[in-house]
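User: I'm writing a tutorial on reading structure tokens. Could you give me a worked example: one chain, its sequence, then its tokens, then a sentence or two explaining what the tokens reveal?
Assistant: Sure. Here is the example chain.
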Amino acid sequence: MWSQLGQVVAEFFPLAVGVALSPLPLIAAVIISLGSGGGGRAVALVAGRFLGVVVVVGVFAALSELFADAGGSAIVLSALNVLLGLAMMVFGVLTWARRPRGDEADSPPKWMASLTGVSGPSAFGLGFTLSAANVKELAFGAGAGILIGGTLTEAPPTIAAVAIFAAIGTVTAAAPVLAVLIGGERIRPALDRLHAALIRSSRTITAVVLVLFGAVLLSSSFG
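And here are its predicted structure tokens:
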């Protein structure tokens, strides 16, 4: 029952890294962590993000299993992976072309400025939304879900695979939260610098991640 779990984790690992490298959840985690008493609210954000990733990957894994049970062919599943890979690469190129330049690149979106005083439930909802209602995240999650559902046939290893994917995808958003909880005020200057760097280059990071991991998804489909 568990024999294929390691293989599946190895195959979806690049997609999980793609989710982990998504800059917006990391930026949100840094901003909330830097706010007064932001530790608890930042934990809520990370919890919402983890649940959002679980829902996305779990839904696609379930749909993939249902499709396989209904007699769907591996060729069709592979074709879906190809379409996802192409969509990610196209979206990455468009994101690169539309990236802000000059002074515009240093201006954070208005929603980021409101995060310092966000409530715990709102932080949880934001974390969930950034994972479950984000086109880029959906593409990564769909690719992983199709792989998991098309390979694993029993519930326990499927649940374990989805949880492992979500844990890998959430680790970067959790890192600044843990840093603040452990390091306290000593870590604030480093997080301030990280925040400024991410604001300047978030679109560029997103574009590179989408193109790179879209290519990974395509290569795995033909491998």
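What the tokens reveal: The chain has a mean pLDDT of 81. The two ends are 24 Å apart (CA to CA).
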